[in-house]
């Protein structure tokens, strides 16, 4: 059995899970049950093997890039973050991001687009528990690099732009011509289920490389992650002027803050952490969350403009913050390249040399805890999106160098392999994204982000393991 497909090395650390035992370089061996060995399983849609799953699990892919929405327009690619809401008759309502960069033109109805030149946005689908599409449509268009986001308690999705492209900024790494864009990008947008999206950015929540959003129902705060590949990233919270559940929507005009470690200015949390690490925290204000620029400054300058304000006030430093999820008073968020580079692992480019950390911020206590740090790529390789099951087990989507997995991190602290992505010929960059459990926990919906992206419904004997 491949060691990447049934991991057995774990060590105990103190963390947000009661009595957690998390993988680390200092650990002894302990068997991890998970759901058992993975085997190739054929897609019920067309018979192709796309996933390797434990015995008893089945799946169907749907809404492939290039397919048609119910209105006849084409489904865009680069499927990314996603959330599932309850729909009629045991169906699920999925809101899904499309991480499309560059001035390639909006999908769907361009008259409704925020920026008719931008090709990203979201789609909304009603599907059965078995991945059969009932209806589908574009729900937000004309945005850009919609990477992740998060579900909101008032039946809405917040979509995040992982870019600061715009006509006021020099071109980014992709080589796209920003002068063709008509609007500034780098914001978050609300996508409600019961009404049309306004396509109005929440500018007070900042203009930076937004990744994920996690809502705290007790305070109304929205916690935001930043994925700044080449530079330090920060952990933020947006405090709307009115509790969104009371307002029925997300209002602009609030306050943006950045997390700092109490008593330790600019604490570098991107490096390896000792097992049991926990910090008291404070929040620092961002005075100018949506700064104006003149003369089309370099993209690298603009993408750091908000974060630098926070770090000047002492905000903590992270490496590539990506997925985030709220669960029972705690926001779990992922640092994709946090930690230490293990001997034998490839040295990574970008800011941060580790293979991934999972952090836990307790909204009720203000404590920040290390939930997990990967000891090497064979155990966990560059985690990205994250979700939680009803039992509190985390699902981590990998975006690694080799085979990519859906890995589980149980409340007992065990990391295990649940699903492996079959390599896609000619597309080494294919990865998992957007994992989310449907109503009642019957189905795990997940995306394959690839040149020809798609969504997948997975179901089976969940009761047999920690999900």
What does this structure look like?
The protein is mostly beta strands. It has helices at 244-247, 299-302, 305-312, and strands spanning 11-12, 21-22, 39-42, 49-53, 58-62, 79-86, 92-98, 120-127, 133-143, 146-152, 156-161, 188-192, 210-215, 222-226, 235-239, 255-261, 278-285, 321-327, 330-335, 357-362, 367-373, 383-388, 394-398, 405-409, 415-421, 431-437, 443-449, 454-459. A 9-stranded antiparallel beta sheet has the order 13-14-15-16-17-21-20-19-18, with helices on one face. Strand 10 and strand 11 form a beta hairpin.
Entry keywords:
3 helices; Neuraminidase; single chain; mainly beta; six-stranded antiparallel sheet; 3% helix; globular; 467 residues; nine-stranded antiparallel sheet; disordered N terminus
């Amino acid at each position: 059995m491949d060691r990447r497909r049934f991991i057995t090395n774990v060590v105990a650390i103190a963390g947000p899970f009661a009595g957690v035992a998390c993988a680390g370089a200092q650990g002894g061996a302990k068997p991890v049950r998970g759901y058992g060995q993975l085997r190739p399983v054929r897609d019920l849609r067309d018979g192709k093997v796309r996933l390797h799953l434990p015995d008893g699990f089945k799946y169907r892919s749907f809404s492939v890039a290039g397919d048609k929405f119910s209105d006849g327009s084409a489904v865009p690619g680069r499927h990314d973050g996603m959330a599932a809401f309850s729909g009629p008759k045991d169906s699920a309502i999925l809101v899904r991001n499309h991480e499309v960069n560059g001035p390639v033109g909006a999908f769907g109805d361009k008259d409704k687009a925020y920026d008719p030149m931008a090709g990203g946005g979201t789609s909304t689908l009603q599907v059965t528990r078995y991945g059969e599409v009932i209806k589908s449509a574009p729900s937000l268009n004309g945005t850009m690099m919609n990477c992740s986001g998060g579900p909101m308690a008032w039946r809405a999705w917040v979509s995040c732009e992982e870019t600061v492209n715009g006509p006021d900024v020099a071109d980014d790494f992709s080589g796209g011509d920003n002068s063709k864009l008509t609007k500034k990008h780098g914001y978050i947008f609300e996508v409600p289920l019961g009404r049309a999206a306004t396509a109005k950015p929440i500018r007070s929540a900042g203009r930076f490389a937004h990744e994920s959003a996690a809502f705290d129902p007790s305070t109304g705060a929205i916690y935001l992650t930043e994925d700044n590949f080449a530079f330090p990233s920060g952990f933020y919270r947006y405090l709307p002027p009115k509790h969104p559940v009371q307002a029925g929507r997300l209002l602009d005009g609030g306050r943006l803050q950045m997390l700092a470690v109490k008593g330790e200015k600019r604490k570098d949390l991107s490096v390896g952490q000792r097992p049991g690490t926990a910090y008291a925290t404070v929040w620092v204000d961002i005075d100018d969350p949506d700064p104006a620029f003149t003369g089309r400054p370099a993209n690298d300058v603009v993408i750091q403009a908000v974060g630098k304000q926070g770090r000047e006030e002492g905000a903590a430093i992270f490496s590539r913050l990506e997925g985030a999820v709220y669960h029972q008073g705690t926001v779990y968020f992922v640092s994709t390249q946090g930690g230490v580079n293990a001997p034998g692992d490839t040295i990574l480019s970008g800011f941060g040399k580790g293979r991934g950390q999972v952090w836990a911020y307790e909204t009720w206590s203000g404590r920040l805890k290390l939930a997990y740090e990967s000891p090497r790529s064979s155990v966990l390789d560059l985690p990205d999106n994250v979700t939680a099951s009803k039992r509190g087990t985390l699902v981590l989507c990998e975006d690694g160098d080799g085979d990519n997995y859906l890995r589980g991190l149980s409340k007992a602290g065990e990391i295990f392999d649940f699903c492996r992505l079959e390599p896609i010929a000619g597309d080494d960059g294919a990865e998992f994204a957007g994992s989310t459990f449907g109503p009642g926990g019957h189905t795990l919906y997940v995306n394959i982000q690839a040149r020809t992206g798609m969504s997948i419904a997975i179901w089976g004997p969940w009761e047999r393991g920690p999900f």
